[in-house]
Design brief:
One of its GO terms (cellular component) is cytoplasm. Its main location: cytoplasm. This is Putative gluconeogenesis factor. This protein is of the alpha/beta class. It folds into 2 domains: 6-35 and 175-329, 3-Layer(aba) Sandwich (Rossmann fold); 39-126, no CATH class. Helices cover 39% and strands 21% of the residues. It is built from 13 helices and 14 strands. It has helices at 15-23, 41-50, 56-65, 70-76, 92-104, 107-117, 147-153, 177-184, 196-204, 207-215, 238-249, 285-290, 312-329; strands at 6-11, 29-34, 123-126, 132-138, 143-145, 157-164, 188-191, 219-223, 227-229, 256-260, 277-280, 294-298, 301-304, 307-310. The strands form 4 sheets. Strands 3-2-1-7-8-10-12 form a 7-stranded parallel beta sheet, with helices on both faces. A 3-stranded antiparallel beta sheet has the order 5-4-6, with helices on one face. A hairpin with a 2-residue loop joins strand 13 and strand 14. The longest helix has 18 residues, at 312-329. The protein is globular and about 50 Å long.
Length: 330
């Protein structure tokens, strides 16, 4: 009997749903592990008032992994207008996730029940059952807490870590057993794409996640970002991203790196709209090899909305190729 390959996609932000949407076309057992350190926008407001994990990234992943009609997805993703006073800026799906968390008195269980109602194909796991606080120490020795503040500082980050909120009663951040088991039982683990220090690494520095990544027999693939980010990864090469991940985990865990060869046209980006990006990431496959990872290159570029994004279908094809090659070797 043919078994589906188990693929775990770890991240957050806008990049993760793009990859999951591409992978959904294949016969694979998908698990999304999602950061819970966001504290901006609608998610940050609900997190603050209701003391729940930020729901925005969970909502966007659920929308692409769901098999309900597009009409239902459109309602789920609907965002109230800015003149709607207390509801201004909130996505309906964020409110539904918040309601499920309160109803079940457990955000993780609430997400699982809602996933069933939304006919999600695969698993959606918040990386922790409580909101986490992101901390960063910069190269100048200063320290800031909170994702929004860290991003807004536009300073060079040395390293990050996460802690539970002060009122949680927990001394250390911890991922649920479902997350750890998914990592340990995976055939392929995919990291990114997304903000290195605020979407990808906040998942990986949770102590039991970090240990699971060291122990898993799965191949670990990093999808390199197309653009650098102001204050986070200015002047970073693809190898710099890989090095930062390995250093935060504590050993070389990245087996392969999916790297873009397509060139972003010089005058295409609307820098005012996409004001968090700086310039295209410098590509050096040999430098990536020196970090112990195999470079997998291709034109992954999708130009849309005056910005540069990954083509989810092309990336998914490369991920499935890695999975198939592992099967052949085994």
């Amino acid at each position: 009997m043919k078994t589906k390959p188990k693929i775990v996609v770890i991240g957050g932000g806008s990049g993760q749903p793009i990859i999951l949407k591409g992978l959904k076309q294949y016969d694979a057992d998908l698990t999304a592990v999602i950061t819970v350190a966001d504290d901006g926008g609608s998610s940050g407001t609900l997190r603050h008032y209701l003391d729940i994990i930020p729901p925005g990234d969970v909502r966007n992943v659920m929308a692409v992994m769901s098999n309900v009609s597009q009409d239902i997805i459109d309602v789920f993703q609907y965002r109230f207008k800015k003149e709607d006073e207390m509801l201004a800026g909130h996505a309906l799906g964020n409110l539904i996730i918040a309601a499920m968390a309160e109803k079940e008195n457990d955000i993780f269980r609430g997400v699982q029940i809602l996933s069933h109602l939304m006919n999600v194909e695969g698993q959606i796991y918040p990386v922790a059952n409580e909101p986490l606080v992101l901390h960063a120490e910069f190269t100048d020795g200063t320290v800031l807490s909170g994702e929004a503040e860290i991003t807004a500082a536009h300073k060079v980050i040395d390293h990050i870590w996460v802690t539970p909120q002060e009122n949680s009663g927990h001394a250390e951040a911890q991922a649920p057993s479902e997350v750890i088991n998914a990592i340990l039982n995976a055939d392929e683990i995919v990291l990114g794409p997304g903000s290195l220090y605020t979407s990808v690494l906040p998942n990986l520095v949770i102590p039991n996640v970090r240990e699971a990544l060291k122990l898993t027999p799965a191949k670990i693939t990093y999808i390199a970002n197309i653009m650098t980010q102001k204050g986070e990864t200015d002047n970073y090469t693809e190898a710099d991203h890989v090095r930062a991940i390995n250093e935060h985990v504590g050993c070389r865990v990245i087996d392969s790196v999916i790297m873009n060869t397509g060139e972003v046209p010089e005058n295409y980006i609307d820098w005012q709209r996409w004001n968090e990006v700086s310039h295209q990431v410098a590509s050096d496959p040999e430098e990536v090899r020196r970090e112990g990872a195999v470079p997998i290159v291709g034109d992954l570029l999708q130009l849309r909305d005056d910005g540069a994004f990954h083509d989810g279908d092309t990336v998914a094809k490369l991920i499935m190729k890695i999975v198939d090659e592992k099967k052949i070797k085994n």
